[in-house]
């Protein structure tokens, strides 16, 4: 998704082309962030062309626009009657850069169309973000319903590895904040709450998600436990990869190196242009 903030028409043509190349070339691969994890819809339908449909379209547009500058936001679109009111929110994984967050939310919204056609409520969880809307208020309401559980294969119970897994999950449970990451050797874990929960609600939700994860995934190589308002995940022996808060991944490291190289090239080109312009003016002045 192109962000208009990157387009500056006053830049020289050459520099603008290079900057455009930069923003496209450095974007991390989106395939993993766009991976569809789960979705759900209400059974109640709205009438096509109704005020509710208009309000819903307005809400979804607001979610996508907001994701260009914030990792979480909630909206309420009011109507002339209670049945026309739409509530909605999105939550990006907290380690995502804003362009990646915006792209993910936009992709999630495109999933909602065919998945929840003309329904009064819907939710989609992609690898990098979550989007939900409904005509009944759910903002700030704790919900520990299990919406998705996935346990990887068991390669035989490894006591040391499972001890590290339990220690990582305990560390996540004891950490503060709505987004938590941890790791020990080949074990890593991540947990996150939706931003509309209070810290007390968030802790309560994550405690339940982690409890279920340990109890229901046993000695699995990886485990995902998504409740309606939070999730907890772990991976052992590189079974899955969860990016850390500083984008501490091999792909991000390579992107940073390449970014530094291109910025250096851009600086060199800019200096060369300034130098040639200066020389041309000197020799042009001497020729008069």
TrEMBL record:
Domain Gnk2-homologous: 34-138, 139-239
Key word Disulfide bond present: yes
Membrane spanning residue stretches: 259-279
Annotated signal sequence range: 1-31
CDD domains from the UniProt entry: Gnk2-like
Location within or outside the cell: Cell junction, Plasmodesma; Cell membrane
Keywords: Cell junction, Cell membrane, Disulfide bond, Host-virus interaction, Membrane, Repeat, Signal, Transmembrane, Transmembrane helix, Transport
Topological relation to the membrane, as annotated: Single-pass type I membrane protein
GO cellular component labels: plasma membrane; plasmodesma
InterPro entries: Cell2Cell_Antifungal, GNK2, GNK2_sf
Quaternary organization: (Microbial infection) Interacts with Grapevine fanleaf virus (GFLV) 2B-MP.
Family listed: Belongs to the cysteine-rich repeat secretory protein family. Plasmodesmata-located proteins (PDLD) subfamily.
Name of the protein: Cysteine-rich repeat secretory protein 60-like
Organism: Sesamum indicum
